[in-house]
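Hi support team,

I've been running sequence recovery on a batch of backbones for a student project. Most finish fine, but this one hangs at about 90% for roughly twenty minutes before it completes. I'm not sure whether the input is malformed or the queue is just slow. I've pasted the structure tokens below so you can try to reproduce it. Let me know if you need the job ID as well.

Thanks,
M.K.
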């Protein structure tokens, strides 16, 4: 009986063969992929318990693949494989939800240990099917995530917004919503309210000037004037401005 289904993504054939043999020897069922596009296709057509992905794979790099998987299959553990120690890449991977980041070459024992951990995590998460249709009449894709993971992730995002950070929520890499703090919201609201109040005050002042007896009399005279009178008034106004 298989210990789990593993997908390995790497553009180096020797790495694919070596790591696949190590995991197969540890009792896992292994599928190989050499680029990000092929990996996504395999994930969409099959069920995996974990994904080991090199960071610099072609077509879709490791971080972009991780980002897409967090949207499509947030419960699927992803382990990044780095060609050299890279703190920036490791931190970015953690922010995107990677389970671990391992530096190659990876010993067979560590590879198997990480795979066992990922499979246990994957199988410990309960699958709750989503059956109702959404507002567009489409059946939403089932999403499963543990309560602890959801609480930790939401807490991290919420804390960032509370501290004044702006969190952009995306879907398929397209911004769909923004999470901001109450202070930021109040500042935006006050700015817009000030602009509206200023515009409203200017309009009221203009309306008040137009409603004076002299202004109404002038407007009536303009409407009642003949073309000749309007022309004479325009010439007189121009001469007055030229003084």
């Amino acid at each position: 009986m298989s210990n789990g289904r593993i997908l390995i993504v790497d553009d180096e054939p020797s790495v694919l063969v070596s790591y696949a043999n190590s995991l197969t020897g540890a009792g896992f069922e292994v599928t190989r992929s050499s680029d990000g596009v092929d990996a996504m296709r395999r994930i969409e057509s099959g069920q995996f318990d974990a994904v080991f992905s090199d960071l610099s794979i072609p077509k879709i790099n490791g971080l972009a693949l991780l980002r897409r998987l967090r949207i499509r299959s947030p419960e699927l553990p992803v382990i990044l494989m780095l060609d050299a120690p890279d703190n920036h890449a490791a931190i970015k991977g953690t922010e995107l939800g990677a389970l671990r980041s391992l530096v190659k070459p990876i010993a067979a024992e560590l590879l198997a240990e990480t795979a066992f951990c990922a499979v246990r995590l994957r199988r410990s998460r309960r699958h709750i099917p989503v059956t109702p249709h959404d507002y567009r009449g489409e059946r939403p894709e089932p999403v499963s995530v543990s309560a602890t993971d959801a609480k930790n992730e939401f807490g991290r995002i919420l804390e960032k917004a509370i501290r004044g950070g702006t969190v952009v929520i995306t879907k398929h890499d397209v911004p769909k919503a923004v999470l901001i703090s109450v202070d930021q919201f109040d500042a935006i609201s006050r700015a817009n309210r000030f602009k509206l109040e200023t515009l409203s005050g200017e309009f009221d002042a203009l309306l008040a000037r137009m409603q004076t007896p002299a202004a109404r009399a002038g407007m009536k005279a303009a409407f009642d004037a003949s073309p000749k009178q309007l022309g004479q008034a325009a010439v007189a106004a121009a001469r007055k401005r030229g003084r």
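--
Follow-up from support: It reproduced on our side and the slowdown came from queue contention, not your input. Residues 183-242 form one domain. No action needed from you.
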